[in-house]
Every structure is written in C-alpha cells, then in structure tokens.
Amino acid sequence: DQVLHIVPETIQQVQHLQLLCSTLMLDLWKPLLPEDIRAGEDLHIRVPAPLVQEMKDTLDQHMISYRYILIPDVQKLVDQNMPRERSSHRQVSGDYVYTEYHSMEEIYQWMTQIQENNSELVTQHFLGKTFENRTMYYLQISQPSNKTKKIIWMDCGIHAREWISPAFCQWFVKEIVQNYKTDPKISRFLQNLDIYVLPVLNIDGYIYSWEEDRLWRKNRSPYENGTCYGTDLNRNFNSSWGSVGVSFNCSSIIFCGSGPESEPETKAVAQFIRSKTSDIVCYLTFHSYGQLLLTPYGSTTEPPSNNEELLQVAKEAAAALTGKYGTSYKVGSTASILYSNSGSSRDWAHMIGIPFSYTFELRDTGTYGFVLPADQIQPTCEETM
Amino acid sequence: SPAMELPPSHFPAARAAAVAVGYLRYLRGGPGRGLELRELRRARRQDIDDVGHKYYLELELEDVLDKDRRVSCTAEVLYHLGSTSCAPEVQVTVQGELRSTEEADQEFYNRIRSLEKELVAENIPDSHGNVPPELEPLHLLAWVASGYVIWQNSTENTKFHLAQVKHVKQVKRNDEDLQFDYVLLLHEMVSQEVLPWQVTVLWHPQHGARVSQ
C-alpha cells in the first residue's frame, strides 16, 4: 500500500480525484470525505497495493502531480504499530470464535477479514488515530442502493475494562452478515438504513486492560509531565462538559480532560458524527455493567424534548431483551437511574440533534461486574440483538 | 415524616439495596453460600428529623448454589446524618429457609486444614471471568468479606460491588479457625473508582465468619 500526497490544482483535477475515490474505493485520509477535496488543499490518499500502478497511470494521464507521503510502505508501518504482544495462535482464516474475548490485534485482523469476506455489505473505514497513534476503524454495513439511507451509529469499548461491549459489537456484525440474506427483518432494515459500527473506541485503553490493568477505564494520554495518565472519554464530549460528575484532576478515574474533545479519540468520533448529523437517526453506545437502557440526560434531570418517545422505544427494547432469557433491564435517564455526569457521548449526540440516543449497560448487575465470564458472551449478545 | 414510596429502579433505592445485600452476605454467606440480588421489589424512604434517612426495602434474592429457590426478605437501612463517619444501621429478615451448607462447609474446612502448604491465589475471577471450581468457596468467602466492607463503608452517595479478588492467602493458625487474608478490589459506581481493601477473615463451620478491615 502507498499513501500519496496530492495537491489538485484545478476543478477538473478535483473532480477526477473524487471520481477515482469512489470508483477505485480508495481510502481517503485527508480530507475525510471526497466532497471536501479542494483545489489548492492537501490530499492524502491511501492506495491499496494492487491499485497503485493504475492510480499512478491515471494521475499521469491527467497531469496530476503526486508525492509519496512519508510512508512508502504502509503495511510495514501498520505491522509495527500493532501491539507487540505474544502472537495469537488463532488462525485468521479459520472460524473466529465470537464466544471468547479478543485482543486488539485479533480485532484488527477480524475487521479486515469480515470486510474481505463480505465486501458487498461491509466496508472498513478510517476514523482517526488514538493518542498512542493506533488507527481507529469503523465498519460500514450498507447495502448498495441508489437512495441515500439514514444511519444508525453504534460504538463499543469507550471504557477499557468493559470487555463485553466490544464483544457485542463483533457479535452484532457477525449476526448481520450471516443472516442478512435469509432474515427478512434484517434485509428490510438494510434497505432503508446503514449501520456504522465502531468495535473499539478506546483502543489504547483496551490494550492496557489486557496487558497491564484489567480494571483500567480511561484512555492513555499523559498529563502533568507524564506523571498521570488517562481521560475518561465518556466525560470528554461537549455536552455540559465539566459541569457535574467529573474531576479536573488527572489522577481521578473520571477526569474529563483539559477541555471538551481534548482527546484524539473523542475528536475522531465527534468530527465524524458532526459530518453526518443530518443522516444519523440513532446513536447507540455500549457499556457495562448494570443491565440498564439509559436515555438522556446525565447532566440534568430536565427531560429531553422527545422524552416520551425515547422512553417508549426503550421500554419496548428492554421487554424484547427480557423475553429472550429473562434478563431484566431497567429503563430511564442516567440522572435518575445512576448518577449525574456531564460530557457523555450519548448526551452530546442527542444535543446535536440525533433524536434516538441511548446508552446500553450490558450484563451483569455486579456479580462478576467487569470480569463477565466468556460463557455469558453468547446469551448477552443474543438477548441484546 | 411519613415514608414515601420510591421507584425501585432509581438510584436512591438501588444504593440502599446494595447495602442490605452486603450486610446479608456478611451475616448469612459462607464458602458454601453466596447471595445475590434478583430484584428490588419495593422501596420507601422516611426522613427522620435529627437522625437520618431510613429506607424500607422488599428484596428478592437468590443463592447462587441453589438458583431455583426464591429467597424473599425485607430490610431496613438507616443512614445516619453526617453519615460519613459511621456505618448505616441495617436490619434484615429472611423469609423462609436457606439451603443448608453444613456438609459443604465441613468438607471445605477439612480440605483446607489438610493442606500442607498455605493456600495462595490471585485474580478471582481472572480477566476472562473464570473461577476454577476449587477456588469457588474462597470466592464466596470473599463475598462475605466484601459484604462486611460494603456495609461498613456505604453512604447514600455510594454503591459498591466486589470487582475482583486481587489476592488471597491462607494463614495457618493454632486454634480451630481458618484464616484468610484478602486483598479485595471494590468498584464504587458513583465515582467509578476501584479501591483495594485489605481484609482478614476468620471462619469456622460452626462459628461462621468474623471480618476485620
């Protein structure tokens, strides 16, 4: 793979590059969207290895000059960036075991595989970089169609120790790709909606919970001259940031960062969602534990404008969930059910106009808490579907 | 003032229920019995002038080793005014009988007494939630210990759960008690902190558990 640096000079060049982006399915690193390509502005585009020659030929043909950006061999860089731990014995080509917890290395491999095996439905996209410079990818589940579809956004793993959450996102994608052709509910769903899944939002923290501290929660950005680590990403969004249920002290586990969206992970998600706000109808974020389906807000007991509708949908969802294995979920606003907090992603999503915003706190209610046994992955995920 | 009805799903009632469960685990738990909250059925609160806030709870519990049986109980939890200094007062009444653990207790006692080397273990459950079967009694004894700590240290602004047993070490004694020194990790839901707690548990099949922080 190569990453090219191009500065288009004319409108025609811009248009040609936009065409190339969509027809060759290139990976735009900067700007994030083809429609933001401008004459005179930097363009960074990753070209998969098999397309490099074709790309160069067409650029030459159109007199578009390009440079290799710093990284002539992207694969090597990607390999180097992968967490260097004991290598997984699991075969990527073999069947992925969804009833076990997976390391980040395995999840990266899984994302590549699931896209390769289901490329007509699933595509992997760059979202941003973490503090420790790891790449954040989301999976787009989208059935080709000529109409623009509304979007459901789901993210997992904003808190490192909540392992059942990324396990659910992986399970969810698997269920969709395995059943979309045969399950009429799913196929009808996908006719009208695209689903964007971010399997692990807090990648650095997740890796840290595997390697150093199973009960870590925050990200891994350093403060106070590297004497103190981590911002609680779910206190870092621009929703009444810093007002309640937070600490301004880095050593606290609910440290809200140096300002709203101070953290690269938060910024990557927020920027992307902002760019698509008018198309996103539903924002879901998955946490554990508690068995709760939480509605806005955490920062105030003032109900949101569409509170009745939010609660009704949530109650129906909770009832369906309970119907599967009898697991009971409580429904209500964070401020009434749990505690007060500010800067949460769910509150922010609702405040910028996404009507249906929910936080799921998955199993259990404290018996195992964060260290939920792997044999509960399947029932947890099945009921949550 | 009279007692007002509280929604059981809201946090004030849920926090009081966690205290009641902690107390009950301390009182009635053991290596052969672990009690878990299934449902908080009803909650009321009474504000008592110059005393504090008293919660009246109706709970449904289950014994993890006897899951088919429902255990109902009522509890009263009184948080004293300025309650950061003293433990809430708790009273609990269990309806009906709990499954007997006499045999399991004696078997555990004999097994530990016959060990040549003092037992040591860590990370219960492990990162993936596993508890080896031979460590399950120590896991449940940790519930007794954490139940005591939770009861003693709770306020209306906290909700504790046992997150993990970091470390447990048996200490052989000359008398008849078994002694286990635990390092427990308690998760406090409101602050989200995970707090380590050193606790010593003395246990005997007929004398039950005694916990010191």
TrEMBL record, chain A:
In terms of Pfam families, this protein maps to:
Peptidase_M14, Propep_M14
Q: Which family does it belong to?
A: Belongs to the peptidase M14 family.
Leader sequence residues: none
Q: Where in the cell is it found?
A: Apical cell membrane
- List residues of the Peptidase M14 domain: 100-385
Identification of the protein by name: Carboxypeptidase O
Task: Give one GO term, molecular function aspect.
Answer: zinc ion binding
**What does the protein in this record do?**
Carboxypeptidase which preferentially cleaves C-terminal acidic residues from peptides and proteins. Can also cleave C-terminal hydrophobic amino acids, with a preference for small residues over large residues.
Per the record, the domain of life is: Eukaryota
Residues annotated as the enzyme's active site: 361
Q: Name one GO cellular component term.
A: extracellular space
UniProtKB/TrEMBL annotation, chain B:
Keyword Aminoacyl-tRNA synthetase (UniProt): no
Keyword Hydrolase part of the UniProt annotation: no
Q: Where is the Cystatin LXN-type domain?
A: 2-103, 120-213
Instruction: List the coiled-coil residues.
Output: none
The terms describing its cellular component in GO are:
extracellular space
Q: Which Pfam families match?
A: LXN
Q: Which domain of life is it from?
A: Eukaryota
Q: Which family does it belong to?
A: Belongs to the protease inhibitor I47 (latexin) family.
What is the official name of this protein in its record? LXN protein
